[in-house]
């Protein structure tokens, strides 16, 4: 028996992230076997992921599983998996907005959807949330376009625009746009010895928004510049939100923890640009338990933030100085500026309706080939402590 198995893989960049794309037929259906397969493929757990395809960064330790549609209003099924780096985990909790932008391009290149010029709309059923995402992909000569004038801060150069429609994603994680029933709650933070205001909003991906100033920081800090106590306090708020919103305690990512501060000048992570306060509506940083910060900004989180900024009483609306809309919300993140158009209507006391949410990314196929997975890692019992992290809405492939 051969000691390695061959697996067809495609590496795609979507926005500011990269992911290994797999066909659903090549992924084990059994949850435990699937976990061992994904960990072996990515080389996890290992801080360098040196024996697999993982990029040793939260933005590149991602997987997209693509299969035939399981509902009539979709063209493909898309399951997103965040692979743990130094931990043996595979999380199905969220939809990655950046990687979502590559799913339409992939579907067209794989002939899963016929190409229509100049734009093909691909209806993507995200199985993590049960929602339909719509991707408008620029096409020419029977293929998705690569070159164009669309810019994404955090990605060198320009590319062909992929327009994403997240308008039908309210309540993706919790079933409600405002999971707690109100725009603002108060949470006791142990290290501060007092309560601070937070906002929990759920569209695209559930997020809990925290004022950076309440944690004693300006909010303009970059990856590697926050002390461990900031991450600990943010994680305490996230755990409160998990309990308050009746989310699975096994989750490690949701709700996203977003630090918000008023618009102010700051230098980007590349060091070659100063974002001016006049360019943005506020500054935002996504932090994760364990001491990591997103080097740009998550697509799903940007959808949620753009909507939250148009709901009166939320932390983002306060930092913006208004909840007026519809508007193109300008998010200042570590790599630059991200603009998201949203249209949110007031529908009554603590009731809001999302009419539209759109943003653009660029996406490109980077590599096609064969990965080699060590059979021994598939056949041995799962390592102690391994787990598949999944939210209640997950529909595994």
TrEMBL record:
<dbReference type="InterPro" id="IPR007400">
    <property type="entry name" value="PrpF-like"/>
</dbReference>
<protein>
    <submittedName>
        <fullName>3-methylitaconate isomerase</fullName>
    </submittedName>
</protein>
<dbReference type="GO" id="GO:0016853">
    <property type="term" value="F:isomerase activity"/>
</dbReference>
<keyword id="KW-0413">Isomerase</keyword>
<comment type="similarity">
    <text>Belongs to the PrpF family.</text>
</comment>
<dbReference type="Pfam" id="PF04303">
    <property type="entry name" value="PrpF"/>
</dbReference>
